Amino acid sequence: MSAAPIPLSRPAVDDELKQAVLAAMDSRQWILGPECRAFESDLAKYLGVNHAVLTNSGTAALWMGLEALGVKAGDEILVPSHTAFPTIEAICFAEATPVFVDVDAWYGMDAADAAAKVTPRTVGVVPVHIYGQPVDVTAVRDLTTRFGLWTLEDCCQAHGAAWGGRRVGSFGRAAAFSFYPSKNVTVMGDGGVLVTDDGEIAARTRRLRDHGRLNKDVHAEVGFNLRFNELQAAVGRVGLRRLDAMNDRRRALAARYHHTLAGLPLALPGERPHAHHVYHLFVVRTDRRGALAAWLKDRGIQTGIHYPVPGHRQPAVESLGAPALPRTERLVDEILTLPLSPGHTEEEIDRVAAAVRAFFSR
Ligand SMILES: *Cc1c(COP(=O)(O)O)cnc(C)c1O
To answer: Between the chain's N and C termini, which has fewer beta carbons within 10 Å?
Structure first.
């Protein structure tokens, strides 16, 4: 008899979440009502920023952030190639040009490579706190100060992550978060938020998400329908209250992997100095990635690759003719994501680790 399969991630569904959804039905103001306003103020308070503007995805939050920063056609934006495609897509959708940057030793954006790629057309940088680990905030700040660039943080994988004791999302002019089901805070569907200290960016984002409206009848500009809804905001508020405890749980399970996988010919995720890593994903690295993934699959263990095709090699942006990024190109052939979420048990983590050990001791 084989053991139960182990999924990559197991989001929570329980009575408290179900009750929150049922209660949110009663207001009959299902779009941008009291739950959305409360979730926005909870988020701003948690992150230590002045404004939070909910929207229907992390991608929409990134796009509106770029628009609110005044991005226009021909502007160049520095962005890591090693990210989820939506980071790149938002830049293209805003009609700017992504300039792809290679990875550093922690798989984040390499600030030195970014500096080498600045041109007179460069306006800003979109660093990504990939896998839940903050980028080198000091290096990014030095870069933006030196060249007079803005920063839009992609925090879609880093809810609650911190640098030097301060949460990510408050380091740039604005930041985007996603509430997609696997993320550290989720809303039982798609969702996202743009956060900022800047009142003008917040006001512009509120306008863009609701048809460019100034008021009920007057449209100041062409926006779109990128609004959020009450039932999902109610779910998100419960998730945000649990976030620190869920991140502690992620960190405890990651520490268990570190302990049980030590000594194998397998690179484990490192923690950058000053960084509080929240392990959105637990990514290991080996040149036998394909064989290890197949071995685990045969034992009912789901793995993932985040991400096999780097941004600069995506067919969608082929016309940019982006130059090679040697470290990123090697990395994407060697990374493997192991199961980890607050919903996993210690027993499951130990089963995964035992299967990985068995693979390397054949
Ligand atoms: C998930 C994710 C996004 C996109 O968020 P959606 O809510 O799925 O639109 C953007 N950037 C990164 C790094 C992500 O992980």
So the answer is: N
